[in-house]
Write a structure and sequence with these properties.
The structure is a homodimer of 339-residue chains. Chain A is an alpha/beta fold. The model of chain A has no long low-confidence stretch (mean pLDDT 95). In chain A, 29% of the residues lie in helices and 28% in strands.
Chain lengths: 339, 339
């Protein structure tokens, strides 16, 4: 079935540019028809230039989202502008009202019902009215700490506790991520900045709520904790150096309880110098499931892949606001067996 | 959402009995309304007796499938009568025409389109006409060597080869399975019986075809091989003893190619004395994914769980013949966090 999807990229920051490169590489299955960004340095430029591909695509970045959507009539908008739903739900409504399905990297959109019930209800309503589907996804939230954990329970007839442990070597990741986890700060500086809400993974509680919904578990208590990880040694990355005793990164975890029993535990460590990076799901159940992705999933690449791979799934899904738990098993899309 | 599904168990062999025990344990979510089997030793008996639970359920096993289906009007039939579709597709049609969704353990039904195109088309048609869904699933086929492999590619934007390696310690499994893999035979006896088609895992090619379809890969060559594994030492199980040099079990593998390149490799070893049982998926791609379920998934329990867990998914799915790749991510159903 040689289908080609008409796609608009909404947001041309680092993740958006990476999406554009992937979209352009799948030219037999995807027709890139537009790109939206408000950055004056980008507006008017060809996406082939801004992405560093050095090609001419004739897709010119525009700040006029409404005009781009109206003129290009995309099947799907790949949306990468913000982690926070309240800052940009208008953008999603705009896409939906133009008749486009949306795949968004917005972490809070991955399971928005609890933190933003009004926005969620409104988005679901307008998506249904327009016969399109809206999805928030990515590698985390959207895969490692929610969809994969849910999938792991699929062979169990009894489950008492779902544990997900993700350990990421931030030293291998992009520079902004190393800064985002506080690498190289003193512990005092970390605590000061932490108070401003600058650190921490966005979406951990969303992942937890998604699992609870899939299991139909009535969570009555939820604890969330963010701490720094102090480096036990000097670590040098391509971008910075962390001295012994300085902050290496973050330890962010959340636990859900029912009647005092911990039933879901999500534990995320992102720090430079991690010696055993991995994504692990342990289902305490019958039968137990001890699943590990050795080395972990490389997030910078995988987040983009996860967004693009969702394109055919949202096009074929029933209309409305959905989560990855509502859609068919994720799978690579237009992943040529050979290049 | 406290939904209770009306379920009929069709087939009360060992797997069917195990399904019945699980169905009866989920009494808040499942109402067992009927049981069908043609075995004269079972007909007329209470399922609470036949399953060894020693309880009275008032669900009496009947050989009259048509009457049971008509009188009980189940939402879902859990069907466990045969591995082979051509032997029992009439049973599936009967369920569907009674307005019931079907979850079946029939291995050939997990991806029936290639081996049985006419039966598949007819089943799909009658399921759509009756507004119900038909699914073949289990732990393998249905999960380890297909759905999980597809899921593993969901974070990749490029994939060149998908490898699944399942190594099962048959010594820990039920006696019939130990016999089914030829444990304790001489290699000559194995080869003789192999010629009669008695050995081998059913569903390996179905798993492979399901992955190929999900990846939209035009497979042009498919090789399937079945060999015996010779035991390098004496192995004693609760049921039998394998001497050094006797058959320990089977090595069954299948490979799919495109233009001479191997793109899918499924490798299954089931033998007594396996020292490193595991289910492993390796996706050669960008990013690569190295996923392993340590110890492997315990099949005897998991197959039943997989069937029961699919009940709400088939009830909520669009009508027709489907595969696990068409449905939402598998998840435990009515898996109480505490008993």
């Amino acid at each position: 079935m040689p289908t080609s999807y008409r796609v608009v990229q909404y947001g041309v920051g680092p993740i958006g540019q990476s999406c554009l490169r992937t979209l352009l590489s799948k030219h037999q299955s995807i027709e890139l028809v537009g790109a939206i960004d408000i950055d004056p340095d980008k507006v008017g430029k060809d996406v082939g230039e801004i992405t560093g591909l050095g090609i001419k695509t004739d897709v010119i970045i525009s700040a006029d989202a409404e005009a781009v959507l109206r003129e290009t009539k995309p099947d799907v908008v790949v949306h990468t502008t913000s982690s926070f739903l309240s800052r940009m739900s208008d953008q999603l409504v705009q896409c939906v009202e133009a008749g486009a399905n949306v795949v968004s990297s917005t972490e809070e959109l991955s399971f928005p019902y609890h933190r933003h019930p009004e926005i969620s209800a409104a988005l679901d309503e307008v998506a249904r009215q327009n016969g399109v589907t809206v999805l928030g996804t990515g590698v985390n939230p959207g895969y490692v700490m929610d969809a994969l954990a849910i999938m792991a329970t699929g062979v169990c007839h009894q489950v008492s506790l779902i544990e997900v442990n993700r350990e990421v070597d931030a030293g291998l990741r992009r520079f902004p991520l190393q800064l985002k986890v506080g690498a190289g700060l003193s512990t005092d500086a970390f605590e000061e900045k932490k108070a401003t809400g600058m650190f921490g993974h966005i979406g951990l509680v969303e992942s937890l709520r998604m699992i609870a919904r899939a299991m139909d578990w009535p969570i009555d208590q939820l604890d969330e904790t963010l701490e720094c990880i102090v480096s036990p040694r000097r670590v040098v990355t391509p971008f910075l150096t962390v001295e012994e005793g300085q902050v290496a990164g973050i330890h962010h975890y959340a636990k859900a309880f029912i009647e005092g029993n911990c039933v879901i535990s999500l534990d995320l460590k992102m720090f430079v110098g991690a010696e055993d990076p991995r994504d692990a799901v342990y289902v305490h159940g019958d039968p137990p499931v001890d699943l590990v992705i050795r080395g972990g999933i490389f997030g910078d690449t995988a987040t983009v892949a996860t967004l693009i791979n969702a394109i055919p799934l949202v096009v074929n899904a029933p209309s409305g606001l959905v989560t990855v738990a509502d859609l068919p098993v994720p799978r690579a899309f237009a992943a040529a067996w050979s290049t």
